[in-house]
Design goal:
This protein is mainly beta and 923 residues long. The chain is built from twelve helices and 47 strands. It is 10% helix and 47% strand. It is globular.
C-alpha cells in the first residue's frame, strides 16, 4: 500500500494529474535567462483550432484535446519557438511543468530586411515590383535566406510575382485592385506592431484565405497577443534612409478585460544610398481590445503610415559611365538645396474593427470590417513648348553624335561629330543634374508670363477609398477533421487625376496638349476647353475606377497518425467600371461618363498531403488549379483618356504543384523541394514613345497591350540547418529555377494622336526568360551563439541567371517589315544579336551580422548590426529595353559607333557595401 501511494504521487508530480476525466495539458512559460514568467505567449495545438495565451504568471492550459500524438507550438516574438511532441491520453491532464524560451537574437534581422527591401517597391519601371517575398520570412531556413541574404538582389521565391500572393491584416487582403500587389508602405516603419505573422509557402493551406501560388502572409494585430512591455529602438543605416526611431508599448490583458498596443516611428534621410533620394516617413499604430466575456472580444486597430521619398533613376550604361553607379538624374540643386523631381508620397490610414467569437470549444468565428482612405502621388515634370529638361535626354549625351546619321549616311565618326560628342560629354559632366535655375528662367521669359509656365511639377494621383468585410470560420468537426471557411467582400473607388504641385515661378498653366492635331484634340476636357489652372487643381486626366469583389473559400483538413491531407475550393466574382470625368479631345465619344461594366467569375481547387515517414521525416505534396481575374489596370488599357476595354480580356489560368522531403530532427533540419507552375493568358501594358510604329514609319506616344502571355516556372530549392555544437550552427541554401515565357502573345498599340488601335500580331517571345530576378541562388552560412548572449554570423552568397526585360514591339514582324527599313539590307545574324536577351553577370555577396544583449535592472539592452556586401560588389538587379527603336534600321543605326547606343537599355543596380546598427531597450 505504501509503495502504491508513493508511486502514484511520483507519477502525478512528473507527468499527469488525474481528475474528473479531463483530457488536456497545462504548462508554464518562463524566460530562460531571468526565469521570470512570460505573458501573452501563444500556445497552439498544431492542426487544430486550439490556441491559448499565457497569463501574467506564464501559465496556460487546454482541455478536450483530441487523443493520440499531438504537436504543441509555443511561440512569442523575440524568442525561439518551442515545438513539443505530446501523447494525449483520454481522461488525463498532462502537466508539462516549466517551458523555457530562449531569446532569439536573429529576430532583429527583420529590421534590417525591411530597411533594405522597402526601397523602390512598386515604382514605375523599377523592376522591383515583381519581387514576391522580400518582406516575408519564416522559420524555414530557405525562406529566411531568400529574404535576408538574397533580398537585396531582388530574388523572388520560385520566380512568382507578388500579385499571386495574398498579404492580409486581420484577414483583410491588402493586395490592391489596380495591380494586385500589396502596398507595403501602408504599414512601413511599424516593425514591432506588425510582428505577429503567419506564412504559407506556395499553394500550401492557409487558415485565412484560399491563397495562390506565391503563398500567404497574415498579420495579426489583436492587442491581447502582444507580450506586455515597452520597447524603444534607434537605427542607423546607409540604405534608403539614414535613421529610424521607434517606440512600442503593450499592456497585456488586464483584470477589467482591456488590452492595448501603441507604436510610433520616424524614418528620415537627407540623402539615401543614391544621390538626391531624400526620405521622410512617420508611422503610428494603435490597437485596443475589449474582452466582453470568455467567448467574445472586440478589437479596434488604426494604422497611419505617411511616407515621402525621392526616387532614383534607371540609367543606361553610358549614363552610369559618366555619372557613376549612384548617379540619379531626377534631382538638382535649387538655391543650394537638393530637390528631387520624382517624389513618391503615400498617406493611406487604415481602420479595422474585429469581433472574435468563440462559438464553442471547437468553433471560432472571427469577423473584421475595415475602411481605408488616402492618397498615393508620384511627381514628375511636365513641359510644353520647351525643351525636355531631363539632363539625360538623348540629345544631351555623347552617343547622339557618335551614332549620327545624315540622309541615311553614317557621319558619327566625322571630325565635326567627334568634336560635338566630346563637347556634349564635357557639358554633361559640368552639369549632369536637373537644372532648376534654368527651369525658373524659362518660366520667367515674357512669352511664359503671357502664355503660362512652360515647365511645371505635377503628380499622378490615386486616391483610393476601400471598404472591406471579412469573416472566417474555423471548426473542429471531429478529432480528425477541421473546417476553415471564409467570405470576403471589397468595394473600392479610386480617383485618378493629374494634380498640379508647383508652377515653378509661373502664375498659371494652360491645360492643352501641344501634340493634338487640332484644337479639339488639344483639350483634355472638351467640357471645359482652353482651361488655365493653378496649384492644387486637376488637369490632363480625371477619372474613377470602381471595383467590387466577392470571394469565398472552404478548406477541409484531415489529420491522421501517418498522413495529413487537405482539400480547398474557392469562388470569386470581380466587376470593374471606369467613370470618366473629362471629355477627352482625342476620344470625345468614349471618354466621358461610365464605361461598360466588366464582370469576371473565377474558381479554384487545391489539395495536398503530408505523409509522416517517421516523427522526423515527412513527404509533403501540394497541387493547385485556379483562375484569376485580370487587374483593373489591365482591363482599361488607356484609362487616362478613354473607356476602352482590352480586346478579348479574360481570366488567367494558374496551375502549380510542389513536392518536398522534410527533416525535423533536434540538431538537423532540412527541406528539399521540386516545383512547377504555369500562368496562362496574362496581360501586360506599357506606355512609351516609339519611332516608326505606323505604316508611314512615323513615331508616336503609344500604349502597348500584350495579351495571352504564358509563363512557366520550374525548379528545385533546398535548405539545410545543422547545429554543429551547442554554440555553432551551419546553414546551406540552394535554388535553381527556369522561368520562361512559353508562347508568342499578341501585341497592339494605341496611338492617341490618330485615335487608332493597330494590331501587330504576335511578338516572338517564346523561349525568352522572365526578367528582373536571379534564377539561381546559393548560400552558405555559419553562426556562433555565445552563452553570454552575444552572437556573430557570416554568409556567402552566389546569384546568377538574371535577365533584362525585353521590348515586345521590337520582336514583332514590324521590326523587319516597317517601311522605315526601305533601302537597307537586313543582316539576319545582326538582327539576331540585336534581339538576343541580355543576361546579367553573376556575382557574389558576403554579409556579416552580429548582436549582443545585456540584462540591466530588469531591462534588456540590445545591439544588432549588419554589414552587407562587404566586398562592395557592383551588380545589376534589373533593367529594361527601351522600346523607342522599333525597327531594324533604327537598331542598326543606334549601334554604328561600336560604343554606347542612343536608346540603350536602362538598368537598376543593387546596393554596394551597406551597414545597419540598431540599439534597442525593452522593459
Amino acid at each position: 500500500m505504501k509503495k502504491l501511494i508513493i508511486s502514484t504521487l511520483f507519477v502525478m508530480q512528473v507527468v499527469f494529474t488525474f481528475g474528473q476525466s479531463i483530457t488536456g495539458i497545462s504548462g508554464k512559460v518562463v524566460d530562460s535567462k531571468t526565469q521570470k514568467p512570460i505573458q501573452s505567449v501563444v500556445a497552439s495545438i498544431q492542426n487544430t483550432n486550439l490556441t491559448q495565451l499565457s497569463d501574467s504568471n506564464g501559465k496556460f492550459s487546454f482541455e478536450n484535446i483530441p487523443t493520440g500524438k499531438q504537436l504543441l507550438l509555443v511561440k512569442s516574438f523575440g524568442y525561439k519557438d518551442q515545438l513539443i511532441q505530446l501523447e494525449i491520453v483520454d481522461g488525463q491532464l498532462l502537466d508539462l511543468g516549466i517551458i523555457t524560451l530562449e531569446t532569439d537574437l536573429t529576430q532583429e534581422k527583420i529590421s534590417g530586411l525591411i530597411t533594405i527591401s522597402e526601397n523602390d517597391l512598386s515604382d514605375d519601371n523599377s523592376g522591383s515590383e515583381s519581387t514576391a517575398s522580400l518582406l516575408q520570412a519564416s522559420k524555414d531556413i530557405f525562406l529566411q535566406a531568400a529574404a535576408y541574404n538574397f533580398g537585396a538582389a531582388r530574388f523572388s521565391v520560385r520566380g512568382i510575382d507578388n500579385e499571386y500572393s495574398n498579404v492580409m491584416i486581420n484577414g483583410i487582403s491588402m493586395n490592391r485592385v489596380a495591380d494586385g500587389r500589396p502596398q507595403y508602405g501602408d504599414w512601413g516603419g511599424l516593425n514591432d506592431a506588425t510582428r505577429n505573422q503567419e506564412f504559407t509557402n506556395g499553394s500550401a493551406p492557409s487558415d485565412y484565405s484560399f491563397g495562390g501560388i506565391a503563398g500567404t502572409q497574415e498579420i495579426n494585430t489583436r492587442a491581447s497577443i502582444y507580450r506586455p512591455g515597452t520597447r524603444i529602438s534607434f537605427l542607423n543605416t546607409n540604405t534608403n534612409y539614414s535613421f529610424r526611431a521607434m517606440g512600442t508599448t503593450a499592456s497585456g490583458m488586464n483584470k477589467d478585460g482591456w488590452a492595448y498596443v501603441v507604436s510610433g516611428g520616424r524614418r528620415w534621410a537627407q540623402d539615401g544610398y543614391y544621390e538626391g533620394t531624400n526620405y521622410a516617413a512617420n508611422s503610428l499604430f494603435a490597437s485596443v481590445e475589449k474582452k466582453i466575456n470568455d467567448n467574445n472580444s472586440l478589437n479596434f486597430t488604426a494604422i497611419y503610415a505617411q511616407n515621402k521619398r525621392g526616387k532614383n533613376s534607371p540609367n543606361t550604361a553610358e549614363q552610369t559611365e559618366l555619372g557613376g553607379q549612384k548617379y540619379n538624374s531626377y534631382w538638382g540643386y535649387q538655391e543650394g538645396e537638393k530637390r528631387n523631381s520624382r517624389v513618391k508620397s503615400t498617406e493611406e490610414p487604415l481602420f479595422m474593427l474585429t469581433h472574435y467569437w468563440k462559438v464553442n470549444t471547437k468553433t471560432n468565428l472571427n469577423t473584421t470590417i475595415s475602411y481605408q482612405t488616402g492618397q498615393i502621388g508620384n511627381s514628375r515634370l511636365d513641359y510644353t513648348e520647351s525643351d525636355n529638361p531631363d539632363p539625360t535626354y538623348y540629345r544631351k549625351l555623347p552617343s547622339f553624335y557618335s551614332n549620327y546619321f545624315f540622309n541615311g549616311v553614317y557621319t558619327g565618326d566625322s571630325p565635326a561629330n567627334i568634336a560635338n560628342a566630346e563637347a556634349t560629354r564635357v557639358k554633361f559632366l559640368a552639369n549632369k543634374q536637373l537644372d532648376w535655375k534654368e527651369i525658373y528662367r524659362v518660366n520667367g521669359e515674357p512669352a511664359a508670363v503671357v502664355d503660362g509656365s512652360r515647365v511645371v511639377l505635377y503628380e499622378d494621383r490615386s486616391d483610393e477609398n476601400i471598404a472591406t468585410f471579412n469573416t472566417n470560420l474555423t471548426s473542429q468537426l471531429s478529432d480528425n477533421v477541421i473546417l476553415t471557411a471564409g467570405v470576403n467582400y471589397l468595394s473600392s473607388k479610386t480617383k485618378n487625376f493629374k494634380n498640379m504641385l508647383d508652377l515653378l515661378g509661373g502664375t498659371f498653366f494652360k491645360d492643352i496638349s501641344t501634340f493634338g492635331l487640332n484644337e479639339n484634340q488639344q483639350q483634355s476636357d472638351l467640357n471645359n476647353p482652353f482651361r488655365t489652372l493653378g496649384v492644387g487643381e486637376h488637369y490632363g486626366y480625371n477619372y474613377n475606377i470602381d471595383v467590387n469583389k466577392l470571394d469565398a473559400f472552404t478548406q477541409f483538413k484531415f489529420v491522421y497518425k501517418k498522413v495529413d491531407f487537405y482539400l480547398a475550393q474557392t469562388f470569386s466574382r470581380s466587376n470593374y467600371q471606369r467613370d470618366g470625368l473629362y471629355k477627352n479631345g482625342y476620344y470625345p465619344t468614349s471618354s466621358f461618363g461610365k464605361s461598360e461594366k466588366k464582370v469576371f467569375d473565377n474558381f479554384g481547387f487545391k489539395g495536398g498531403l503530408t505523409y509522416k515517414l517517421t516523427g522526423r521525416n515527412f513527404i509533403d505534396f501540394n497541387g493547385i488549379y485556379m483562375t484569376k481575374s485580370p487587374n483593373s489596370k489591365d482591363v482599361f488599357p488607356n484609362s487616362r483618356v478613354n473607356n476602352s476595354i482590352t480586346e478579348g480580356i479574360s481570366n488567367e489560368t494558374i496551375k502549380g504543384v510542389d513536392v518536398s522531403y522534410v527533416v525535423k530532427a533536434p540538431k538537423f533540419k532540412a527541406r528539399f523541394t521540386g516545383y512547377f507552375s504555369e500562368t496562362l493568358n496574362a496581360t501586360d501594358i506599357n506606355f512609351y514613345y516609339a519611332d516608326a510604329v505606323s505604316s508611314a514609319g512615323n513615331g508616336a506616344f503609344v500604349s502597348e497591350v500584350v495579351t495571352g502571355m504564358n509563363k512557366k516556372n520550374r525548379g528545385i530549392e533546398a535548405g539545410l540547418e545543422y547545429q554543429l555544437t551547442s554554440t555553432i550552427k551551419v546553414t546551406g541554401v540552394a535554388a535553381y529555377g527556369e522561368y520562361t515565357i512559353t508562347n508568342n502573345p499578341n501585341v497592339s498599340l494605341t496611338d492617341d494622336a490618330s485615335s487608332t488601335v493597330t494590331q501587330y500580331g504576335q511578338t516572338h517571345l517564346a523561349g525568352y526568360k522572365q526578367a528582373g530576378m536571379p534564377q539561381q541562388a546559393y548560400s552558405v552560412g555559419i553562426e556562433y551563439r555565445d552563452p553570454k548572449f552575444w552572437w556573430i554570423g557570416a554568409n556567402a552568397n552566389y546569384l546568377a541567371d538574371n535577365y533584362l526585360d525585353v521590348s515586345s514591339i521590337r520582336r514583332t514582324d514590324n521590326f523587319y517589315t516597317n517601311v522605315d527599313n526601305a533601302g537597307i539590307t537586313i543582316d539576319q545574324s545582326l538582327a539576331d544579336s540585336y534581339l538576343k536577351q541580355e543576361k546579367f553577370n553573376s556575382f557574389y555577396l558576403f554579409n556579416l551580422v552580429g548582436g549582443k544583449t545585456w540584462r540591466i535592472d530588469g531591462k534588456t539592452l540590445g545591439l544588432f548590426a549588419t554589414v552587407n556586401n562587404v566586398l562592395d560588389i557592383t551588380y545589376k538587379t534589373g533593367g529594361f529595353e527601351q522600346s523607342r527603336n522599333a525597327t531594324y534600321r533604327q537598331e542598326f543605326e543606334d549601334r554604328q559607333s561600336g560604343g554606347h547606343g542612343v536608346f540603350a537599355p536602362k538598368y537598376f543596380y543593387g546596393y554596394g557595401r551597406t551597414y545597419m546598427v540598431n540599439v534597442y531597450l525593452t522593459f
